[in-house]
């Protein structure tokens, strides 16, 4: 009986150790581009926000895409709607452009490793290029939030925050937006 219990415990311990040794990356080695998930690639190539403007969004700087979705509830004027559409389309166009460039640079980093052609100097250059593009991409999204805030009233911004489920208080920067 003791032998059976010992064998059972050893087997289960070995299984536990095997599971614990598995990487969180398990299965990702099959991806074409290992540094980005298919969802991330799709997001970058279609101009999605991907959380890049979170500091703006969560500090009372509404995003144009969401403002357009909430246009009726926010009672946007025709001028506000047109301005928001212009901001959104400009942002989306640039975001798609930078998204393609970012994916291209990530593919280059992938290539360096997959072909074994990597050195610290080559890697640094590739990473710097990728980081520059990611910064430009993030800037595009953040600037769109700045531009959006300017065309909304304080009441619209408060309502936007409420509709988006943000319950935090305002930071005192409310006076910087303009009413239309």
What report would you give on this structure?
The chain has 180 residues and is an all-alpha fold. The protein has one domain. Helices cover 67% and strands 0% of the residues. It is built from eight helices and no strands. α2 packs across α6 (78-114) and α6 (78-114) packs antiparallel against α7 (120-150). The protein is flat, with a radius of gyration of 24 Å. The model is unreliable at 171-180 (pLDDT under 50).
Brief summary of the model shown:
With 180 residues, this protein is mainly alpha-helical. It has 8 helices and no strands.
Mean pLDDT: 87
Overall, the morphology is: flat
β-sheet strand percentage: under 5%
Number of strands: 0
Count of discrete alpha- or pi-helical segments spanning 4 or more residues: 8
Estimated structural class: mainly alpha
- Note the main sheet: none
Whole-number count of domains: 1
User: Whole-Å distance between the termini?
Assistant: 82 Å
Radius of gyration: 24 Å
Percent of residues in helical segments? Answer: 55-70%
Instruction: List low-pLDDT spans.
Output: 171-180
Strand and helix order: HHHHHHHH
